Amino acid sequence: MSCYLITGGTPLRGTVRVRGAKNSALKLMAASLLAEGTYRLREVPQIADIETMRLVLRRLGCDARFEDGTMAIEVPAAVGGEAPYELVRQMRASIVVLGPLLARRGRARVAMPGGCNIGSRKIDLHLKGLERMGATIGFDHGYLEASGGLHGAEIVLDWPSHGATENICMAATLAKGTTVIENAARDPEIQDLSAMLSDMGARISGAGTPTIVVEGTDALRAVEHTVLPDRLEAGTYLIAAAATGGDVTVEGARGGHLEIALSKLADSGAEVDAGPASVRLRMPGTPRPVDFVTLPYPGFPTDLQPQMMVLCAIASGTSIATENVFENRFMFVDELVRMGADIRTEGHHAVIRGRPRLEAAPVRAPDIRAGAALAIAGLVADGETELSGVDHIERGYESFDDRLRALGGRIERLDG
Ligand code: UD1
């Protein structure tokens, strides 16, 4: 098992460039299943989750590989129909192949994703949406079996689920008739997916708004596409800069995709210069406390909640964090408390009493974002933190330790 050894106390300074968004690239790879041909996806990050999706595509008969930093995908005329458990269990987001496979082949068999460290992560909205479009979905020994020709439908999501919106959108591109998704997720990654689907010949409008309309078409074509920059990777480096009292410019970050997070960072005392293609953050003194509430986009992203908690943990007063998206996302708090943070959780609220400093301790990353947060805590803490479970972090961040080191962070990766 690999770990990071992190010595705290050095402010991060310099420039880091973000890669394409993991949460977009995964779905764009799944979207390639909708049409035969050669795809080239630029800026796909080289991380473990992308590798899992690459293996899923290969299992489905596609050839997917990195060529000079670009993901090249060859999709054959006939794709396979089964996403196996050993891959889906490594990454729940594999469920987004269900919509494209069903639309293209009329049937699909995808392992039921299990639980994960941030909650049960249900998929009922994905399934209800596809059923409204005419799919029959059954369960067989841990697998979802979906079949049926798809037709357009009006689908009102109970909650603006990111993944359900994407799965249904992709399925709707090849369905007969018009699909309307109400209360759709509005994330920039959905706009990116919509842009690629449109280039492929899909008729889709409203991505980025709560109502998405997709008129089904008979066939789509393969395309080239550049993945949009990763706002969550950008936000992580910006919060790391704030927590360490540093000065970091994140190139490629789109300020408009991080509006609420940047305004909370400004409330905490950071000087933020946000533009369309880079964001600079300087933190001149001790952070001030900030209250924040996670909500679907454009609300404060749940994926930046753990990192923001670290900033609050060293603020000059008491902050309250409210987590509305994932039920177990405070699970890492016990690890942060072991580093000296004063945090009390009650249901989906956390009261964080800022302390002047954190102290190094052996801690374990339970998931991608909490892992990044604990690394930031290590960069702040007195002494040397041993952070294990870094394979979680590396599911979502390319060269995380190298990038922090390039900004002056004292972090070393130990293998084995
Ligand atoms: C995606 C992102 C994840 C981000 C999340 C919210 C990917 C690979 N992951 O996850 O990083 O934190 O969006 O922005 O893109 N829910 C249901 N039924 C469903 C679907 C979801 O009850 O059918 C619930 C989930 O349990 C969760 C909440 O809705 O509590 C949000 O889930 P969703 O928006 O679907 O997130 P993901 O697409 O899984």
Q: Could you explain how this protein is built, in words?
A:
The structure is a single chain. With 416 residues, this protein is of the alpha/beta class. The chain folds into two domains: 3-18 and 229-414, Enolpyruvate transferase domain (UDP-n-acetylglucosamine1-carboxyvinyl-transferase, Chain, Alpha-beta prism); 22-226, UDP-n-acetylglucosamine1-carboxyvinyl-transferase, Chain. Helix content is 31%, strand content 25%. The protein is built from 14 helices and 24 strands. It has helices at 22-31, 48-59, 85-88, 98-105, 124-132, 162-173, 188-199, 231-243, 259-267, 305-313, 333-338, 368-380, 390-396, 400-406, and strands at residues 3-7, 13-17, 37-42, 63-67, 70-75, 82-83, 107-111, 136-140, 143-147, 154-156, 178-182, 203-205, 211-215, 224-226, 247-251, 271-274, 278-282, 292-293, 318-322, 342-346, 349-353, 363-364, 384-388, 410-414. Strands 22-23-1-24 form a four-stranded mixed β-sheet. It has a four-stranded mixed β-sheet with strand order 2-15-17-16, covered by helices on one side. Strands 4-5-3-14 form a four-stranded mixed β-sheet. A hairpin with a 5-residue loop joins strand 12 and strand 13 (211-215). The chain binds uridine-diphosphate-N-acetylglucosamine. The site of uridine-diphosphate-N-acetylglucosamine (UD1) has 20 residues, from helix 1, helix 5 and helix 6.
Topology (SSEs and partners):
Layout: E1 3-7, E2 13-17, H1 22-31, E3 37-42, H2 48-59, E4 63-67, E5 70-75, E6 82-83, H3 85-88, H4 98-105, E7 107-111, H5 124-132, E8 136-140, E9 143-147, E10 154-156, H6 162-173, E11 178-182, H7 188-199, E12 203-205, E13 211-215, E14 224-226, H8 231-243, E15 247-251, H9 259-267, E16 271-274, E17 278-282, E18 292-293, H10 305-313, E19 318-322, H11 333-338, E20 342-346, E21 349-353, E22 363-364, H12 368-380, E23 384-388, H13 390-396, H14 400-406, E24 410-414
Parallel strand pairs: 2-15, 3-14, 6-7, 10-11, 18-19, 22-23
Antiparallel strand pairs: 1-23, 1-24, 3-5, 4-5, 7-9, 8-9, 11-13, 12-13, 15-17, 16-17, 19-21, 20-21
